[in-house]
Design a protein that fits this description.
By secondary structure, the protein is α+β, with helices and mostly antiparallel strands. It is built from seven helices and eleven strands. The strands form three sheets. The protein has a five-stranded mixed sheet. It has a four-stranded antiparallel sheet with strand order 1-7-8-6, with helices on one face. Helix 4 crosses helix 7 and helix 6 crosses helix 7 (210-229). The two termini are 27 Å apart. It binds a DNA duplex through residues 1, 58, 78-82, 117-122, 141, 168-171, 174, 177, 179, 186-187, 235-236, 275-278.
Length: 288
DNA sequence: ACGGATTCCTGATGGC
DNA sequence: TGCCATCAGGAATCCG
């Protein structure tokens, strides 16, 4: 499922294909895929130029430009579990498209930007420019996102785990998955980082020593950085904007390995439900 | 302020 | 082999 490294990979592979192109047509095949309603969505997107593609947490962001180079708002895509964003040459038929944007020629042919999603959990949202009530800055999910894990220090990370200086009673994994605490981490990278840091997913966050919190932060950064270098993890659905799979799934030590031996000590990994998610961990290598 | 359940979805998987 | 139940999960929402 697309987490930070997967969305980062999509942003990178999409950017070179679509940046500077104009959005010439908008085809909404599944109205539940978008917001606001089709009329406003079209109005906010049609005729705009895709100036820049980047990422914030698990959100893919297309920054738009209006005529005269003015701010044109944003398109934000949340892929949830099975969403895909693909850059395709016209004529190629994508699998179960929900939204298709036709983009202008850039001297090397026109292009389609396709949002598809078998499970239909994902969303493509269009925001107005200018900081008004319809702008992305007023979208609570976006506004309340925690910091980027690759752009903060260990000290800032510790502060995020202890809001207003109070020790949190929440389980550490619940905090890692909370996008308002830190942005971009999902079930895969939470389990991978916790295993590498030797911390149980159900450990009470406030009871973890500063030294071990720093170790967790280092593990998060290491895992995310390596996953980005491997173009993300493809369990089954995830693909980049070219339709290519990632390879970090070959480096999983925890996720999906319940019952299999711990790669450090050989004990069978166990699984536990924490914060409503299946959490795989090693009883010997990870402690509260 | 926390955990838990529920909802949204469909495909994969496992038991019988 | 076929059928059915279960599971997977990000985030919103409600409830205790």
């Amino acid at each position: 499922m697309p987490e930070l490294p997967e969305v980062e990979t999509i942003a990178r592979t999409l950017a070179s294909e679509v940046e500077s192109r104009l959005i010439l047509d908008v085809e909404v095949l599944d109205e539940s895929a978008i917001a606001p309603e089709p009329g406003s969505f079209r109005e906010r997107v049609l005729g705009r130029r895709i100036a820049r593609v980047d990422r914030r947490g698990k959100l893919l962001l297309l920054h738009l430009q209006a005529a005269g180079g003015k701010d044109g708002g944003e398109i934000a895509v949340h892929l949830r579990m099975t969403g895909r964003v693909l850059a395709l040459p016209p004529g190629e038929s994508p699998v179960r498209p929900r939204v298709v944007l036709t983009l202008s020629d850039r001297g090397c042919g026109a292009m389609l930007l396709v949002f598809s999603d078998v499970r239909r959990f994902g969303r493509m949202l269009a925001f107005a420019p200018g900081g008004g009530p319809d702008s992305i800055d007023h979208w609570p999910f976006y506004r309340d996102l925690g910091p980027e894990p690759l752009l903060i220090t260990a000290e800032e990370f510790r502060q995020r785990l202890a809001p207003r200086g109070k020790k949190s009673k929440a389980r550490i994994k619940a905090l890692l998955l909370d996008q308002g605490v830190i942005a971009g981490i999902g079930n895969i990278y939470a389990d991978e980082a916790l295993l590498r840091a030797g911390i149980r997913p159900d450990a009470v966050a406030g009871a973890i020593s500063a030294r071990r919190q720093d170790k967790l932060f280092a593990a998060i950064q290491a895992v995310l950085t390596q996953a980005i270098a491997e173009n993300g993890s493809s369990i089954r659905d995830y693909r980049d904007a070219h339709g290519d799979a990632g390879s970090f799934q070959n480096h999983f030590r925890a996720y999906g390995r319940a019952g299999q031996p711990c790669l450090t000590c050989g004990a069978a990994l166990r699984s536990l439900r924490v914060a409503g998610r299946t959490s795989t961990f090693c009883q010997h290598c990870q402690t509260a």
